[in-house]
Design brief:
The protein has 492 residues and is mainly alpha-helical. Helix content is 57%, strand content 6%.
């Protein structure tokens, strides 16, 4: 097998593994689609469905692309949960193919391409994000495509850089993390080379193209006071279910793919560092790791680089595995055990009634956030029906608001959380509110009367973020809604 440094030009690339790699991609898509109807909506998916009804060039916490995907899915398949998750499955099937193409660029023949594709297909982050609609789902594909196009552009430069800029610009319409990738790659070129792209006008033209495509979102953010910065501060302060202390960022990398497959991407780091042409990528990885720790980012912010690293590590690991049956068995066992463990943790394999008796939700909090939304909406709806006409639901977070809109669509609901706040307060004549997601001390700052009315129960005893919350009936706002709304608005 060739090392990355041995691939000197496009003509030297080995054939693409046309049969095996598409088969792995198709199998992953099939598994994700079979699992798509399990449990229920994630709170973020409910938010994307709401955002899809308010098209814009930007939102408080994201670009326009993922809500656009939700709008497309509902236009095609209505309120189908499976329909909402078709595009994520297809995106990560494409990710498998792009990973194999990266391995091919690094000189990997059929076996290395198949290994790289297999490692990505069984990765924890791929199974988790491919199972639901998430900004991370498309972000993974965007990073991999940018990396693949950059690898292809490095030998010859020229107009090929424009494709990198195009892919990056599209990715930036989904998530700003692509900007961090571009920064890391630029630092890698400056520090480790090759520096020829820095003298190539097409390289800088690609950057301008990416910024031009990103501009509508930047303008939206500027006009709305840069709420993305407030969100970043909230995440850095631990205000997210997936936030971790800075010192856990590096150790957490071991589980994003699989602890058993970490040697493959580590081998990729080593192989890339040893190559003169591709040394910029390990430098970029180190720069991004430091940046994530310094800014209080989430550990998974680095996950977009793992297709590249797995692709680079596949050939050397395969050479090692061919040194004997025991080694081949270890590699095959690592793949099989990773697939099994990650599927159980990330996909709705365990019956929902038994989740509470497992450590799954303690290990992967997002799994718990896909349980109980219809029950929440039903409980809130029952309280609303006992109140006077014109009663409005006020929720503390976008998941609760999205659940009421999805499962009790006839009930007016508002929230001050993130972009929901931009969609407006209730009318000033709304005197009665059914509130969920708040404590009584907060609500008494806004209403003269606050009384408990019900308790949220997901019906399976699962201790997630909404379980056991009180539903309150609040009357007589202490000020007009237009005056209260700035106090209710919050980012996180």
């Amino acid at each position: 097998m060739q090392s990355p440094s041995a691939t000197e030009d496009t003509a030297g690339r080995p054939p693409f593994a046309r049969g095996a790699v598409p088969a792995i991609a198709a199998l992953l898509v099939a598994v994700l689609l079979v699992a798509a109807g399990g449990y229920g909506y994630h709170r973020d998916e409910l938010y994307f469905l709401a955002a899809a009804r308010h098209p814009a060039w930007g939102y408080v916490d994201q670009g326009p692309l993922t809500p656009l995907f939700a709008r497309l899915a509902t236009a095609v398949s209505g309120d189908s949960l499976v329909g909402l998750r078709v595009l994520p499955a297809l995106f990560l099937g494409l990710l498998v193919v792009v990973t194999a193409l990266l391995a091919r660029e690094f000189g990997g023949r059929r076996g290395a391409q198949v290994l790289a594709a297999s490692c990505v297909a069984v990765s924890a982050i791929v199974l988790q994000t491919g199972h639901l609609l998430s900004t991370t789902t498309f972000d993974l594909l965007a990073w991999a495509v940018v990396a693949w196009l950059a690898v292809r552009a490095l030998p010859t430069g020229g107009p090929r850089w424009l494709l990198v800029g195009l892919a990056a610009g599209i990715g930036l319409q989904n998530k700003t993390l692509v900007a961090f990738l571009l920064f890391g790659l630029l630092v890698g070129l400056v520090v480790a080379g090759p520096r020829q792209p820095l003298r190539d006008p097409w390289f800088w033209g690609a950057g301008l193209l990416a910024v031009a495509l990103w501009t509508p979102y930047l303008v939206w953010q500027a006009l709305h006071g840069w709420p993305q910065l407030a969100l970043s501060r909230s995440i850095a302060a631990g205000g997210s279910t997936s936030s971790e202390p800075w010192w856990l960022v590096v150790p957490f990398q071991v589980v994003l793919v699989s602890p058993l497959l970490a040697p493959v991407w580590v081998a990729g780091l080593v192989a890339l560092w040893r190559s003169r042409r591709y040394r910029l990528f390990p430098v970029a990885y180190a720069v991004l790791a430091v940046l994530v720790m310094a800014t209080g980012g989430k550990p998974y912010y680095l996950c977009g680089l793992y297709p590249l690293l797995l692709a680079a590590g596949a050939a050397p690991v395969l050479r090692w595995a061919r040194g004997g049956r025991a080694r081949a068995g270890l590699l095959g066992g690592a793949l099989a055990l990773s697939a099994l463990a990650n599927a159980v943790l990330m996909l709705p394999v365990v019956p929902v009634a038994e989740l509470k008796d497992t450590p799954i939700t303690a290990m992967v909090a997002d799994v718990g956030e896909t349980v109980g939304w219809p029950e929440l909406a039903s409980t809130v709806s029952g309280v609303v029906t006992a109140q006077p006409p014109g009663t409005v639901v006020l929720t503390g977070n976008y998941g609760e608001a999205g659940a009421v809109q999805r499962f009790a669509p006839g009930i007016p609901v508002v929230s001050g959380h993130n972009s929901y706040a931009d969609w407006g307060p209730p009318p000033d004549d709304a005197a009665t509110v059914v509130a969920v997601g708040y404590g009584p001390a907060v609500l008494r700052q806004w209403f003269a009367s606050v009384e408990p009315a019900a308790v949220i129960d997901n019906g399976v005893g699962l201790d997630n973020q909404e379980q056991g919350r009180t539903v309150w009936v609040c009357r007589d706002p202490v000020a007009s809604w237009s005056a209260l709304w700035p106090r209710i608005r919050h980012v996180g």
